[in-house]
Write a structure and sequence with these properties.
Layout lengths: L2 E5 L11 H9 L2 E4 L2 H10 L6 E3 L6 H11 L3 E4 L13 H10 L3 E4 L4 H8 L7 E6 L4 H11 L5 E7 L3 H11 L5 E5 L7 E5 L1 H10 L5 E6 L8 H17 L1
Helix pairs in contact: 6-7, 7-8
Bound molecules: S-adenosylmethionine (SAM).
């Protein structure tokens, strides 16, 4: 039926496309996407031929009008390059405009790097704040981290490999003692999730320059600190028992 269908797509492993996503991408009248080349490849892999409309949040009002006029009569999908649309990706303005015009909106859930990183980090997952990408300039990045420092929740962020070292250094200074997980290349061949102190992670990635896509997970304030500190505590406890 007519409406806007928000469709999550894989974040690396094409096996993660859902059956509903495939059926929907096949059945809609058009697919709105960030990059027609990237979505074209996914559709080619799925052996789906579709009309593609380029869309991002910088798109003109006219493009939004066009997509929503179509969606009021026929089903139209929105996808992003990878993962869940609207999560550090375009779509928010389109969904808001659809709601304003009474165009029905539904969403087909699927992969998102933020949620996957949270499930791998081994950090408290009961309360979390997703804060998207940190600013790339040092001062703005530190200001953003200071603003997040008192949030009583696990933090989830997106980063890029070239900025990882600077981001970890800033996290170490602005959010001292907080354990951090680096979740890299999720669902892909070289997937890893490494949790530790910022100092330990900085040393590791200095010796092994990271490649690919990265999500960061930061422990909430007041969580027991990184493993190194736990070992200290265990040693102290052991020594104390000896003395007794
Ligand atoms: N909408 C996407 C989602 O739901 O995950 C996120 C899009 S955002 C433009 C791209 C960022 O997501 C990357 O820079 C990286 O921080 C993170 N990301 C995407 N895929 C990833 C993966 N396979 N492993 C780790 N992080 C990933």
């Amino acid at each position: 039926s007519p409406g806007l269908y928000i469709v999550a797509t894989p974040i690396g492993n094409l096996g993660d496309i859902t059956l509903r996503a495939i059926a929907t991408l096949r059945g809609v009248a058009a697919v709105a996407c960030e990059d027609t080349r990237i979505t074209g490849k996914l559709l080619h892999y799925l052996q789906i031929k579709q009309k593609l409309i380029r869309y991002d949040d910088h798109a003109s009002e006219a493009t939004r009008d066009h997509i929503l006029a179509l969606a009021s009569e026929q089903p139209v999908a929105l996808v992003s390059d990878a993962g869940t649309p609207l999560i550090s990706d375009p779509g928010f303005k389109l969904v808001r405009a659809a709601r304003e015009r009474g165009v029905s909106v539904t969403s087909l859930p699927g992969p998102s790097a933020a949620i996957m990183a949270l499930t791998l980090a081994g950090l408290p997952s009961d309360r979390f704040l997703f804060a998207g990408f940190l600013p790339s300039k040092d001062k703005a990045r530190r200001d953003a981290l200071r603003g997040l420092a008192s949030v009583e929740a696990t933090l989830v962020l997106y980063e890029t490999a070239p900025r990882l070292a600077d981001a970890l250094a800033a996290i170490g200074e602005e959010l001292p003692g907080r354990e951090v997980a680096v979740a890299r290349e999720l669902t892909k061949r070289f997937e890893e999730c490494r949790t530790g102190s910022t100092a330990g992670l900085i040393a590791h990635y200095a010796a092994n320059p990271p490649k690919g896509e990265i999500a960061l997970v930061i422990a909430p304030p007041g969580e027991p600190a990184a493993v190194e500190h736990d070992i200290d505590a265990l040693l102290r406890a052991a020594l104390a028992t000896d003395k007794a």
